[in-house]
Amino acid sequence: MCGIIGIIGKAPVTPLLVEALKRLEYRGYDSAGVATLVGGRIERRRAQGKLVNLEARLAEEPLAGTIGIGHTRWATHGKPSERNAHPIATSRVAVVHNGIIENFQELKDELSAEGRRFDSDTDTEVVAQLLTASLERGATPEQAMAGAMGRLRGAFALVALFSGRDDILIGARRGSSLAVGYGDGEMYLGTDALALAPFTKRVTYLEDDDWVVIDAEGARIFQGDREVQREIRLSGISGAMMGKGNHKHFMLKEIYEQPAVVGDTLQTFIDPATRAISLPPLPFDWNTVTRLTITACGTACYAGMVAKYWFEKLARLPVEVEVASEFRYREPPLPAGGVCIAISQSGETVDTLAALRYAKENGQTILSVVNVPESAIARESDIVLPTLAGPEIGVASTKAFTTQLTVLLVAAMDAGRARGVLSAAESARLAGALIELPAHINTALNLEAQYKRIAEDVLSFARDVLYLGRGSSFPIALEGALKLKEISYIHAEGYAAGEMKHGPIALIDEHVPVVVVAPTDAIFDKTASNFEQVKARGGKLVLLSDSAGNARLASHAVAAVLLPTVDPVVSPILYTVPVQLLAYHTAVAKGTDVDQPRNLAKSVTVE
Protein backbone atom coordinates (compact mmCIF):
# COMPACT_ATOMS: atom_id res chain seq x y z
CA MET A 1 0.00 0.00 0.00
CA CYS A 2 1.09 3.59 0.59
CA GLY A 3 4.76 4.38 1.07
CA ILE A 4 6.09 6.68 3.81
CA ILE A 5 9.42 8.44 4.30
CA GLY A 6 10.56 11.06 6.83
CA ILE A 7 14.03 12.61 7.08
CA ILE A 8 15.83 14.89 9.49
CA GLY A 9 18.96 15.83 7.55
CA LYS A 10 21.94 18.14 7.40
CA ALA A 11 21.26 19.33 3.85
CA PRO A 12 18.10 19.93 1.77
CA VAL A 13 16.02 16.76 2.04
CA THR A 14 13.67 17.03 -0.94
CA PRO A 15 15.96 15.10 -3.35
CA LEU A 16 16.39 12.39 -0.71
CA LEU A 17 12.65 12.18 -0.11
CA VAL A 18 12.02 11.70 -3.83
CA GLU A 19 14.79 9.09 -4.06
CA ALA A 20 13.17 7.14 -1.21
CA LEU A 21 9.72 7.44 -2.79
CA LYS A 22 11.09 5.91 -5.99
CA ARG A 23 12.15 2.91 -3.94
CA LEU A 24 8.60 2.66 -2.62
CA GLU A 25 6.91 2.72 -6.03
CA TYR A 26 6.70 -1.07 -5.97
CA ARG A 27 3.99 -0.84 -3.30
CA GLY A 28 1.55 0.71 -5.79
CA TYR A 29 0.29 4.30 -5.76
CA ASP A 30 -1.81 6.87 -7.60
CA SER A 31 -0.41 10.17 -6.26
CA ALA A 32 2.65 11.43 -4.42
CA GLY A 33 3.82 14.39 -2.41
CA VAL A 34 6.41 15.87 -0.08
CA ALA A 35 6.38 18.50 2.66
CA THR A 36 9.23 20.33 4.38
CA LEU A 37 9.67 23.20 6.81
CA VAL A 38 10.81 26.43 5.17
CA GLY A 39 11.40 29.22 7.66
CA GLY A 40 9.47 27.17 10.19
CA ARG A 41 6.37 26.97 7.95
CA ILE A 42 5.00 23.85 6.27
CA GLU A 43 5.42 23.87 2.50
CA ARG A 44 4.01 21.11 0.27
CA ARG A 45 4.29 19.88 -3.31
CA ARG A 46 1.85 17.20 -4.47
CA ALA A 47 0.83 15.62 -7.77
CA GLN A 48 -1.62 13.04 -9.03
CA GLY A 49 -0.20 10.09 -10.95
CA LYS A 50 3.37 8.89 -11.13
CA LEU A 51 6.42 10.36 -9.43
CA VAL A 52 7.55 12.00 -12.66
CA ASN A 53 4.62 14.38 -12.20
CA LEU A 54 5.81 15.28 -8.71
CA GLU A 55 9.35 15.73 -9.99
CA ALA A 56 8.05 18.08 -12.69
CA ARG A 57 6.21 20.07 -10.05
CA LEU A 58 9.33 20.31 -7.93
CA ALA A 59 11.37 21.43 -10.92
CA GLU A 60 8.94 24.33 -11.37
CA GLU A 61 8.58 25.03 -7.65
CA PRO A 62 11.67 23.84 -5.75
CA LEU A 63 11.28 23.00 -2.09
CA ALA A 64 14.00 23.80 0.45
CA GLY A 65 14.26 22.55 4.03
CA THR A 66 16.40 20.07 5.96
CA ILE A 67 13.46 18.22 7.53
CA GLY A 68 10.59 16.70 5.61
CA ILE A 69 8.16 13.89 4.89
CA GLY A 70 7.07 12.16 1.69
CA HIS A 71 4.33 9.79 0.57
CA THR A 72 3.11 7.62 -2.29
CA ARG A 73 -0.66 7.20 -1.90
CA TRP A 74 -2.88 4.29 -2.86
CA ALA A 75 -6.39 5.70 -2.57
CA THR A 76 -8.76 4.32 0.05
CA HIS A 77 -10.85 7.27 1.24
CA GLY A 78 -11.24 9.87 -1.51
CA LYS A 79 -10.50 9.44 -5.20
CA PRO A 80 -6.98 9.86 -6.57
CA SER A 81 -6.39 13.60 -6.97
CA GLU A 82 -3.94 16.30 -5.93
CA ARG A 83 -6.49 17.46 -3.36
CA ASN A 84 -6.38 14.07 -1.65
CA ALA A 85 -2.66 13.46 -2.12
CA HIS A 86 -0.50 13.34 0.99
CA PRO A 87 0.97 15.01 2.94
CA ILE A 88 -2.33 16.21 4.37
CA ALA A 89 -1.75 19.45 6.27
CA THR A 90 -3.12 22.20 8.43
CA SER A 91 -1.17 25.32 9.36
CA ARG A 92 0.26 23.45 12.37
CA VAL A 93 0.97 19.90 11.17
CA ALA A 94 1.50 17.80 8.03
CA VAL A 95 0.75 14.08 8.12
CA VAL A 96 1.51 11.10 5.89
CA HIS A 97 -0.47 7.94 6.53
CA ASN A 98 -0.68 4.34 5.42
CA GLY A 99 -3.76 2.42 6.50
CA ILE A 100 -7.37 3.19 7.35
CA ILE A 101 -8.77 5.17 10.28
CA GLU A 102 -11.89 3.14 10.97
CA ASN A 103 -13.57 5.72 13.19
CA PHE A 104 -12.76 8.67 10.92
CA GLN A 105 -16.42 9.66 10.42
CA GLU A 106 -17.04 9.82 14.15
CA LEU A 107 -13.93 11.94 14.65
CA LYS A 108 -14.71 14.10 11.63
CA ASP A 109 -18.21 14.86 12.92
CA GLU A 110 -16.75 15.78 16.30
CA LEU A 111 -14.07 18.03 14.83
CA SER A 112 -16.48 19.63 12.35
CA ALA A 113 -18.80 20.47 15.23
CA GLU A 114 -15.89 22.39 16.77
CA GLY A 115 -15.75 24.50 13.60
CA ARG A 116 -12.84 22.78 11.88
CA ARG A 117 -12.93 22.84 8.09
CA PHE A 118 -11.84 19.80 6.09
CA ASP A 119 -10.11 20.34 2.74
CA SER A 120 -9.81 16.73 1.51
CA ASP A 121 -11.93 13.59 1.27
CA THR A 122 -9.39 11.47 3.15
CA ASP A 123 -9.67 9.74 6.49
CA THR A 124 -6.11 10.97 7.11
CA GLU A 125 -7.27 14.53 7.60
CA VAL A 126 -8.91 13.66 10.91
CA VAL A 127 -5.42 12.82 12.20
CA ALA A 128 -4.05 16.20 11.12
CA GLN A 129 -7.07 18.00 12.58
CA LEU A 130 -6.95 15.99 15.81
CA LEU A 131 -3.28 16.83 16.32
CA THR A 132 -3.92 20.47 15.45
CA ALA A 133 -6.75 20.71 17.97
CA SER A 134 -4.45 19.40 20.71
CA LEU A 135 -1.65 21.78 19.73
CA GLU A 136 -4.03 24.73 19.83
CA ARG A 137 -5.07 23.73 23.34
CA GLY A 138 -1.43 24.02 24.41
CA ALA A 139 -0.23 20.42 24.05
CA THR A 140 3.29 19.66 22.89
CA PRO A 141 3.65 17.59 19.69
CA GLU A 142 4.53 14.59 21.87
CA GLN A 143 1.43 15.04 24.01
CA ALA A 144 -0.71 15.53 20.91
CA MET A 145 0.47 12.23 19.36
CA ALA A 146 0.07 10.31 22.62
CA GLY A 147 -3.49 11.61 22.87
CA ALA A 148 -4.27 10.82 19.24
CA MET A 149 -3.12 7.22 19.66
CA GLY A 150 -5.83 6.81 22.26
CA ARG A 151 -8.51 8.16 19.93
CA LEU A 152 -7.70 6.47 16.62
CA ARG A 153 -9.10 3.06 15.65
CA GLY A 154 -7.87 1.02 12.72
CA ALA A 155 -4.59 -0.06 11.17
CA PHE A 156 -2.16 2.70 10.35
CA ALA A 157 1.36 4.05 10.13
CA LEU A 158 1.76 7.80 10.58
CA VAL A 159 4.53 10.39 10.39
CA ALA A 160 3.88 13.98 11.42
CA LEU A 161 5.84 17.16 10.69
CA PHE A 162 5.13 20.16 12.96
CA SER A 163 5.40 23.83 12.02
CA GLY A 164 8.03 25.67 14.03
CA ARG A 165 9.73 22.40 15.02
CA ASP A 166 12.57 21.71 12.64
CA ASP A 167 14.13 19.40 15.23
CA ILE A 168 11.64 16.51 15.42
CA LEU A 169 9.43 14.15 13.47
CA ILE A 170 6.91 11.91 15.21
CA GLY A 171 5.81 8.53 13.87
CA ALA A 172 3.33 5.92 15.04
CA ARG A 173 2.19 2.47 13.99
CA ARG A 174 -0.70 0.14 14.61
CA GLY A 175 -1.00 -2.74 12.17
CA SER A 176 0.98 -1.11 9.33
CA SER A 177 4.76 -1.27 9.22
CA LEU A 178 7.06 1.64 10.15
CA ALA A 179 10.82 1.56 10.69
CA VAL A 180 13.32 3.97 12.25
CA GLY A 181 16.67 4.51 10.51
CA TYR A 182 19.75 5.73 12.38
CA GLY A 183 22.32 7.90 10.60
CA ASP A 184 25.26 10.10 11.59
CA GLY A 185 23.57 13.26 12.81
CA GLU A 186 20.62 12.35 10.58
CA MET A 187 17.52 10.26 11.28
CA TYR A 188 14.87 8.58 9.18
CA LEU A 189 11.40 7.07 9.31
CA GLY A 190 10.22 4.77 6.54
CA THR A 191 7.68 2.16 5.58
CA ASP A 192 10.34 -0.51 5.31
CA ALA A 193 14.07 -1.14 5.07
CA LEU A 194 13.97 -0.77 1.28
CA ALA A 195 13.08 2.90 1.63
CA LEU A 196 15.88 3.43 4.14
CA ALA A 197 18.55 1.37 2.36
CA PRO A 198 20.32 4.30 0.62
CA PHE A 199 20.71 6.13 3.91
CA THR A 200 21.47 3.59 6.62
CA LYS A 201 21.64 -0.09 7.52
CA ARG A 202 20.86 0.53 11.20
CA VAL A 203 17.13 0.01 11.57
CA THR A 204 14.57 -0.43 14.35
CA TYR A 205 11.18 -1.94 13.50
CA LEU A 206 8.41 -0.41 15.58
CA GLU A 207 5.90 -2.70 17.24
CA ASP A 208 2.13 -2.28 17.34
CA ASP A 209 1.01 0.84 19.23
CA ASP A 210 4.54 2.24 19.35
CA TRP A 211 4.97 5.93 18.68
CA VAL A 212 8.38 7.49 18.21
CA VAL A 213 10.01 10.90 18.40
CA ILE A 214 13.13 11.28 16.28
CA ASP A 215 15.62 14.13 16.30
CA ALA A 216 19.03 14.46 14.69
CA GLU A 217 20.70 12.43 17.44
CA GLY A 218 18.38 9.46 17.88
CA ALA A 219 14.93 8.16 18.72
CA ARG A 220 12.70 7.84 21.78
CA ILE A 221 10.02 5.16 21.49
CA PHE A 222 6.86 5.04 23.57
CA GLN A 223 3.87 2.83 24.30
CA GLY A 224 1.25 5.14 25.71
CA ASP A 225 3.14 7.36 28.17
CA ARG A 226 5.84 4.77 28.88
CA GLU A 227 9.20 4.91 27.11
CA VAL A 228 10.30 1.52 25.77
CA GLN A 229 13.43 0.06 24.19
CA ARG A 230 13.50 -1.60 20.77
CA GLU A 231 16.43 -3.42 19.19
CA ILE A 232 18.52 -1.72 16.51
CA ARG A 233 19.26 -4.24 13.78
CA LEU A 234 21.56 -4.26 10.77
CA SER A 235 19.57 -4.52 7.54
CA GLY A 236 21.00 -6.71 4.80
CA ILE A 237 19.21 -4.79 2.06
CA SER A 238 21.39 -2.73 -0.27
CA GLY A 239 20.67 -0.30 -3.04
CA ALA A 240 22.06 -2.76 -5.58
CA MET A 241 19.15 -5.12 -4.90
CA MET A 242 16.75 -2.57 -6.29
CA GLY A 243 18.03 -2.46 -9.86
CA LYS A 244 16.47 -4.16 -12.88
CA GLY A 245 19.82 -5.35 -14.20
CA ASN A 246 19.54 -5.97 -17.94
CA HIS A 247 15.81 -6.67 -17.76
CA LYS A 248 13.05 -4.39 -18.97
CA HIS A 249 10.90 -4.86 -15.87
CA PHE A 250 11.40 -5.84 -12.24
CA MET A 251 8.93 -8.69 -12.76
CA LEU A 252 11.07 -10.23 -15.49
CA LYS A 253 14.22 -9.81 -13.40
CA GLU A 254 12.51 -11.53 -10.47
CA ILE A 255 11.27 -14.38 -12.66
CA TYR A 256 14.85 -14.96 -13.79
CA GLU A 257 16.14 -14.89 -10.21
CA GLN A 258 14.10 -17.98 -9.33
CA PRO A 259 16.76 -20.65 -9.93
CA ALA A 260 19.09 -18.77 -7.57
CA VAL A 261 16.59 -17.96 -4.82
CA VAL A 262 15.01 -21.42 -4.85
CA GLY A 263 18.54 -22.82 -4.59
CA ASP A 264 19.39 -20.46 -1.72
CA THR A 265 16.22 -21.45 0.12
CA LEU A 266 16.92 -25.15 -0.37
CA GLN A 267 20.46 -24.82 0.98
CA THR A 268 18.98 -23.42 4.19
CA PHE A 269 16.92 -26.56 4.83
CA ILE A 270 18.55 -29.47 2.94
CA ASP A 271 22.09 -30.82 3.19
CA PRO A 272 23.02 -31.52 -0.46
CA ALA A 273 25.52 -34.20 0.55
CA THR A 274 23.27 -36.29 2.80
CA ARG A 275 19.95 -34.99 1.43
CA ALA A 276 18.77 -34.69 5.02
CA ILE A 277 16.20 -32.07 5.95
CA SER A 278 17.16 -29.68 8.73
CA LEU A 279 14.47 -27.32 9.95
CA PRO A 280 15.05 -25.02 12.93
CA PRO A 281 13.80 -26.48 16.24
CA LEU A 282 10.00 -26.54 16.10
CA PRO A 283 7.85 -25.62 19.09
CA PHE A 284 5.62 -28.63 18.42
CA ASP A 285 5.86 -32.32 17.57
CA TRP A 286 4.53 -33.25 14.13
CA ASN A 287 3.23 -36.49 15.66
CA THR A 288 0.87 -34.64 17.99
CA VAL A 289 -0.42 -32.08 15.50
CA THR A 290 -4.13 -32.70 15.06
CA ARG A 291 -4.70 -30.40 12.11
CA LEU A 292 -2.91 -27.79 10.03
CA THR A 293 -4.71 -24.57 9.21
CA ILE A 294 -3.02 -22.65 6.41
CA THR A 295 -4.04 -19.02 5.97
CA ALA A 296 -2.93 -16.46 3.40
CA CYS A 297 -4.15 -14.06 0.72
CA GLY A 298 -3.86 -14.00 -3.07
CA THR A 299 -0.87 -15.80 -4.54
CA ALA A 300 0.31 -16.89 -1.08
CA CYS A 301 -3.04 -18.62 -0.57
CA TYR A 302 -2.42 -20.64 -3.73
CA ALA A 303 0.91 -21.70 -2.24
CA GLY A 304 -1.09 -22.93 0.74
CA MET A 305 -3.42 -24.86 -1.56
CA VAL A 306 -0.47 -26.69 -3.12
CA ALA A 307 0.89 -27.36 0.37
CA LYS A 308 -2.42 -29.00 1.34
CA TYR A 309 -1.78 -31.69 -1.29
CA TRP A 310 1.78 -32.16 0.01
CA PHE A 311 1.00 -32.37 3.72
CA GLU A 312 -1.92 -34.71 3.22
CA LYS A 313 -0.05 -36.99 0.81
CA LEU A 314 3.41 -37.03 2.37
CA ALA A 315 2.48 -36.74 6.06
CA ARG A 316 -1.16 -37.88 6.19
CA LEU A 317 -1.91 -34.69 8.10
CA PRO A 318 -5.36 -33.07 7.74
CA VAL A 319 -5.16 -29.55 6.30
CA GLU A 320 -7.62 -26.69 5.89
CA VAL A 321 -6.67 -23.76 3.66
CA GLU A 322 -8.32 -20.52 4.68
CA VAL A 323 -8.58 -17.24 2.79
CA ALA A 324 -7.26 -14.92 5.49
CA SER A 325 -9.74 -12.12 4.81
CA GLU A 326 -12.64 -14.48 5.57
CA PHE A 327 -11.12 -16.73 8.20
CA ARG A 328 -11.72 -14.92 11.46
CA TYR A 329 -15.15 -13.66 10.46
CA ARG A 330 -16.40 -17.26 10.22
CA GLU A 331 -15.16 -17.84 13.76
CA PRO A 332 -14.27 -21.47 12.95
CA PRO A 333 -13.55 -23.87 15.80
CA LEU A 334 -9.88 -24.81 15.95
CA PRO A 335 -8.72 -28.08 17.54
CA ALA A 336 -6.40 -28.40 20.49
CA GLY A 337 -2.95 -29.35 19.27
CA GLY A 338 -3.43 -27.55 15.96
CA VAL A 339 -0.81 -25.59 14.03
CA CYS A 340 -1.56 -22.55 11.90
CA ILE A 341 0.75 -21.74 8.98
CA ALA A 342 0.60 -18.07 7.95
CA ILE A 343 2.10 -17.27 4.54
CA SER A 344 2.98 -13.74 3.42
CA GLN A 345 5.68 -12.22 1.23
CA SER A 346 5.82 -8.95 3.15
CA GLY A 347 4.90 -10.34 6.55
CA GLU A 348 2.66 -7.28 6.96
CA THR A 349 -0.49 -8.43 5.10
CA VAL A 350 -3.19 -7.11 7.40
CA ASP A 351 -5.75 -9.89 6.82
CA THR A 352 -3.17 -12.62 7.32
CA LEU A 353 -1.92 -10.93 10.48
CA ALA A 354 -5.48 -10.75 11.83
CA ALA A 355 -6.03 -14.42 10.95
CA LEU A 356 -2.80 -15.32 12.74
CA ARG A 357 -4.00 -13.51 15.84
CA TYR A 358 -7.36 -15.29 15.73
CA ALA A 359 -5.60 -18.65 15.48
CA LYS A 360 -3.25 -17.76 18.32
CA GLU A 361 -6.14 -16.68 20.55
CA ASN A 362 -7.69 -20.08 19.86
CA GLY A 363 -4.71 -22.06 21.03
CA GLN A 364 -2.91 -22.72 17.74
CA THR A 365 0.87 -22.76 17.44
CA ILE A 366 1.91 -20.32 14.72
CA LEU A 367 4.42 -21.21 12.01
CA SER A 368 4.98 -18.44 9.47
CA VAL A 369 6.49 -18.54 6.00
CA VAL A 370 7.61 -14.99 5.21
CA ASN A 371 10.19 -13.15 3.15
CA VAL A 372 10.84 -10.40 5.71
CA PRO A 373 12.10 -11.86 9.00
CA GLU A 374 11.62 -8.56 10.88
CA SER A 375 7.96 -8.25 9.84
CA ALA A 376 4.93 -8.19 12.13
CA ILE A 377 3.82 -11.71 11.15
CA ALA A 378 7.30 -13.07 11.83
CA ARG A 379 7.52 -11.33 15.19
CA GLU A 380 4.15 -12.68 16.33
CA SER A 381 4.86 -16.26 15.24
CA ASP A 382 6.16 -19.10 17.38
CA ILE A 383 8.50 -20.21 14.59
CA VAL A 384 9.51 -18.70 11.24
CA LEU A 385 10.58 -20.59 8.12
CA PRO A 386 12.06 -17.82 5.98
CA THR A 387 12.00 -17.67 2.22
CA LEU A 388 15.20 -16.23 0.79
CA ALA A 389 13.69 -14.49 -2.22
CA GLY A 390 15.26 -11.11 -1.47
CA PRO A 391 13.37 -7.89 -2.21
CA GLU A 392 10.48 -8.41 -4.61
CA ILE A 393 9.58 -5.14 -6.31
CA GLY A 394 7.10 -6.18 -9.02
CA VAL A 395 3.55 -6.07 -7.66
CA ALA A 396 2.74 -9.47 -9.18
CA SER A 397 4.48 -12.03 -6.98
CA THR A 398 6.87 -14.41 -8.70
CA LYS A 399 9.99 -15.51 -6.84
CA ALA A 400 8.25 -15.10 -3.49
CA PHE A 401 5.69 -17.70 -4.61
CA THR A 402 8.20 -20.30 -5.77
CA THR A 403 10.28 -19.92 -2.60
CA GLN A 404 7.11 -20.23 -0.50
CA LEU A 405 6.33 -23.48 -2.32
CA THR A 406 9.89 -24.67 -1.73
CA VAL A 407 9.73 -24.03 2.01
CA LEU A 408 6.28 -25.63 2.33
CA LEU A 409 7.36 -28.78 0.50
CA VAL A 410 10.41 -29.14 2.74
CA ALA A 411 8.15 -28.71 5.79
CA ALA A 412 5.75 -31.35 4.47
CA MET A 413 8.64 -33.74 3.94
CA ASP A 414 9.88 -33.09 7.47
CA ALA A 415 6.39 -33.82 8.81
CA GLY A 416 6.21 -37.00 6.71
CA ARG A 417 9.47 -38.29 8.13
CA ALA A 418 8.48 -37.46 11.70
CA ARG A 419 5.08 -39.12 11.34
CA GLY A 420 6.54 -42.28 9.79
CA VAL A 421 4.72 -41.83 6.48
CA LEU A 422 7.77 -40.95 4.41
CA SER A 423 10.67 -43.41 4.49
CA ALA A 424 14.27 -42.23 4.66
CA ALA A 425 14.83 -43.46 1.11
CA GLU A 426 11.75 -41.69 -0.25
CA SER A 427 12.65 -38.49 1.59
CA ALA A 428 16.17 -38.59 0.13
CA ARG A 429 14.74 -39.19 -3.35
CA LEU A 430 12.42 -36.18 -3.07
CA ALA A 431 15.25 -34.07 -1.64
CA GLY A 432 17.27 -35.00 -4.73
CA ALA A 433 14.39 -33.92 -6.95
CA LEU A 434 14.32 -30.58 -5.14
CA ILE A 435 18.08 -30.12 -5.40
CA GLU A 436 17.81 -30.63 -9.18
CA LEU A 437 14.91 -28.19 -9.45
CA PRO A 438 16.89 -24.92 -9.95
CA ALA A 439 18.50 -26.43 -13.05
CA HIS A 440 15.10 -27.45 -14.42
CA ILE A 441 13.71 -23.97 -13.73
CA ASN A 442 16.62 -22.58 -15.71
CA THR A 443 15.69 -24.87 -18.61
CA ALA A 444 12.11 -23.63 -18.45
CA LEU A 445 13.36 -20.03 -18.53
CA ASN A 446 15.35 -20.77 -21.68
CA LEU A 447 12.04 -21.38 -23.49
CA GLU A 448 11.10 -17.70 -23.21
CA ALA A 449 10.80 -17.24 -26.97
CA GLN A 450 8.01 -19.82 -27.02
CA TYR A 451 6.08 -18.11 -24.20
CA LYS A 452 6.45 -14.79 -26.00
CA ARG A 453 5.09 -16.23 -29.25
CA ILE A 454 2.10 -17.83 -27.50
CA ALA A 455 1.37 -14.61 -25.63
CA GLU A 456 1.52 -12.47 -28.77
CA ASP A 457 -0.30 -14.87 -31.13
CA VAL A 458 -2.91 -16.43 -28.84
CA LEU A 459 -3.43 -14.81 -25.45
CA SER A 460 -3.07 -11.08 -26.13
CA PHE A 461 -6.09 -11.07 -28.46
CA ALA A 462 -8.37 -12.94 -26.06
CA ARG A 463 -11.15 -11.46 -24.00
CA ASP A 464 -11.35 -14.52 -21.75
CA VAL A 465 -8.80 -17.23 -20.93
CA LEU A 466 -9.27 -20.44 -18.95
CA TYR A 467 -6.55 -22.36 -17.08
CA LEU A 468 -7.01 -26.03 -16.19
CA GLY A 469 -5.12 -28.32 -13.85
CA ARG A 470 -5.70 -31.38 -11.69
CA GLY A 471 -4.31 -32.29 -8.30
CA SER A 472 -1.49 -30.02 -7.22
CA SER A 473 -1.55 -28.43 -10.70
CA PHE A 474 -4.99 -26.97 -9.97
CA PRO A 475 -3.60 -24.18 -7.73
CA ILE A 476 -1.02 -23.44 -10.44
CA ALA A 477 -3.91 -22.99 -12.89
CA LEU A 478 -5.44 -20.55 -10.41
CA GLU A 479 -2.12 -18.73 -10.10
CA GLY A 480 -1.71 -18.54 -13.88
CA ALA A 481 -5.15 -17.00 -14.24
CA LEU A 482 -4.47 -14.54 -11.43
CA LYS A 483 -1.19 -13.44 -13.01
CA LEU A 484 -2.87 -12.84 -16.37
CA LYS A 485 -5.65 -10.81 -14.74
CA GLU A 486 -3.26 -8.79 -12.60
CA ILE A 487 -0.94 -7.48 -15.26
CA SER A 488 -2.70 -7.80 -18.65
CA TYR A 489 -6.28 -7.01 -17.48
CA ILE A 490 -7.63 -9.96 -19.49
CA HIS A 491 -10.38 -11.87 -17.72
CA ALA A 492 -9.07 -15.30 -16.78
CA GLU A 493 -10.21 -18.11 -14.52
CA GLY A 494 -8.54 -21.23 -13.21
CA TYR A 495 -10.48 -24.45 -12.78
CA ALA A 496 -9.94 -27.97 -11.53
CA ALA A 497 -10.01 -29.75 -14.88
CA GLY A 498 -12.60 -32.25 -13.70
CA GLU A 499 -15.01 -29.42 -12.97
CA MET A 500 -15.15 -28.28 -16.60
CA LYS A 501 -18.18 -30.39 -17.42
CA HIS A 502 -20.00 -29.03 -14.36
CA GLY A 503 -20.51 -25.63 -15.94
CA PRO A 504 -17.42 -23.86 -17.35
CA ILE A 505 -17.39 -25.98 -20.52
CA ALA A 506 -20.33 -23.84 -21.67
CA LEU A 507 -17.81 -21.00 -22.15
CA ILE A 508 -15.65 -22.92 -24.62
CA ASP A 509 -15.56 -21.80 -28.25
CA GLU A 510 -12.94 -20.94 -30.85
CA HIS A 511 -12.33 -17.55 -29.24
CA VAL A 512 -11.38 -18.86 -25.79
CA PRO A 513 -7.78 -19.97 -25.21
CA VAL A 514 -7.45 -22.74 -22.62
CA VAL A 515 -4.07 -23.18 -20.92
CA VAL A 516 -3.66 -26.73 -19.59
CA VAL A 517 -1.11 -27.38 -16.83
CA ALA A 518 -0.43 -31.06 -17.37
CA PRO A 519 2.72 -32.72 -16.01
CA THR A 520 2.73 -36.46 -16.50
CA ASP A 521 1.57 -37.80 -13.15
CA ALA A 522 -0.83 -40.38 -11.70
CA ILE A 523 -3.87 -38.42 -12.92
CA PHE A 524 -2.51 -37.34 -16.30
CA ASP A 525 -5.00 -39.58 -18.13
CA LYS A 526 -7.86 -37.73 -16.47
CA THR A 527 -6.37 -34.38 -17.52
CA ALA A 528 -5.93 -35.70 -21.06
CA SER A 529 -9.63 -36.60 -21.15
CA ASN A 530 -10.55 -33.05 -20.17
CA PHE A 531 -8.12 -31.78 -22.83
CA GLU A 532 -9.96 -33.81 -25.48
CA GLN A 533 -13.33 -32.48 -24.29
CA VAL A 534 -12.14 -28.90 -24.76
CA LYS A 535 -10.68 -29.75 -28.17
CA ALA A 536 -13.99 -31.25 -29.32
CA ARG A 537 -15.68 -27.91 -28.63
CA GLY A 538 -13.24 -25.83 -30.60
CA GLY A 539 -11.22 -24.36 -27.73
CA LYS A 540 -7.73 -23.00 -28.45
CA LEU A 541 -5.58 -25.32 -26.37
CA VAL A 542 -2.18 -24.30 -25.01
CA LEU A 543 -0.38 -27.28 -23.49
CA LEU A 544 2.24 -27.11 -20.75
CA SER A 545 3.65 -30.61 -20.31
CA ASP A 546 6.72 -32.83 -20.43
CA SER A 547 7.90 -35.18 -23.16
CA ALA A 548 5.32 -37.91 -22.44
CA GLY A 549 2.47 -35.43 -22.25
CA ASN A 550 3.54 -33.61 -25.40
CA ALA A 551 3.85 -36.87 -27.31
CA ARG A 552 0.22 -37.63 -26.53
CA LEU A 553 -1.47 -34.22 -26.75
CA ALA A 554 0.70 -31.63 -28.50
CA SER A 555 -0.72 -32.36 -31.96
CA HIS A 556 -4.17 -31.25 -30.75
CA ALA A 557 -2.96 -27.92 -29.34
CA VAL A 558 -2.48 -24.56 -31.05
CA ALA A 559 0.71 -24.29 -29.00
CA ALA A 560 2.65 -26.66 -26.76
CA VAL A 561 5.61 -26.07 -24.46
CA LEU A 562 7.95 -28.99 -23.74
CA LEU A 563 9.09 -28.75 -20.11
CA PRO A 564 11.64 -30.93 -18.30
CA THR A 565 10.39 -34.17 -16.82
CA VAL A 566 10.45 -33.89 -13.02
CA ASP A 567 9.04 -35.77 -10.07
CA PRO A 568 5.30 -34.99 -9.89
CA VAL A 569 5.71 -33.84 -6.29
CA VAL A 570 7.94 -30.92 -7.32
CA SER A 571 6.18 -30.17 -10.61
CA PRO A 572 4.00 -27.33 -9.21
CA ILE A 573 7.15 -25.28 -8.56
CA LEU A 574 8.50 -25.84 -12.08
CA TYR A 575 5.16 -25.25 -13.84
CA THR A 576 4.80 -21.89 -12.12
CA VAL A 577 7.51 -20.47 -14.39
CA PRO A 578 5.66 -20.83 -17.73
CA VAL A 579 2.42 -19.36 -16.39
CA GLN A 580 4.39 -16.38 -15.08
CA LEU A 581 6.09 -15.77 -18.41
CA LEU A 582 2.89 -16.23 -20.41
CA ALA A 583 1.27 -13.52 -18.29
CA TYR A 584 4.34 -11.29 -18.50
CA HIS A 585 4.63 -11.39 -22.29
CA THR A 586 0.88 -10.96 -22.75
CA ALA A 587 1.02 -7.80 -20.62
CA VAL A 588 4.02 -6.51 -22.59
CA ALA A 589 2.18 -7.19 -25.86
CA LYS A 590 -0.82 -5.24 -24.60
CA GLY A 591 1.34 -2.37 -23.34
CA THR A 592 0.20 -2.42 -19.72
CA ASP A 593 2.24 -1.32 -16.71
CA VAL A 594 3.77 -4.67 -15.80
CA ASP A 595 5.45 -3.72 -12.52
CA GLN A 596 2.71 -1.43 -11.22
CA PRO A 597 -0.62 -2.66 -12.58
CA ARG A 598 -3.61 -0.43 -12.05
CA ASN A 599 -5.51 -0.52 -8.76
CA LEU A 600 -3.05 -2.95 -7.16
CA ALA A 601 -0.61 -2.57 -4.29
CA LYS A 602 2.33 -4.78 -3.41
CA SER A 603 1.68 -5.06 0.30
CA VAL A 604 -1.99 -4.97 1.29
CA THR A 605 -1.98 -3.35 4.71
CA VAL A 606 -5.62 -2.28 4.87
CA GLU A 607 -8.80 -4.35 4.79
Plain-language structure description:
- By secondary structure, the protein is of the alpha/beta class.
- Helices cover 37% and strands 23% of the residues.
- The chain contains 19 helices and 25 strands.
- An 8-stranded antiparallel β-sheet has the order 3-2-4-1-10-9-11-15.
- Helix 9 links the parallel strand 16 and strand 17 (319-323).
- Helix 4 crosses helix 5, helix 10 packs parallel to helix 11 and helix 14 packs parallel to helix 19 (571-590).
- The longest helix has 22 residues, at 424-445.
- The N and C termini lie close together (11 Å).
- The model has no long low-confidence stretch (mean pLDDT 90).
Query: In what order do the strands lie side by side in the largest sheet?
Result: 3-2-4-1-10-9-11-15
> Could you tell me the strand content as a percent range?
15-25%
Number of helices: 19
DSSP, total strands: 25
User: Level of helix content?
Assistant: 25-40%
Termini separation: 11 Å
Low-confidence stretches: none
Mean pLDDT: 90
Structural class by secondary-structure content = alpha/beta
Please state the oligomeric state of the protein chains shown.
single chain
For the biggest sheet, the summary is:
8 strands, antiparallel
Whole-angstrom Rg: 25 Å
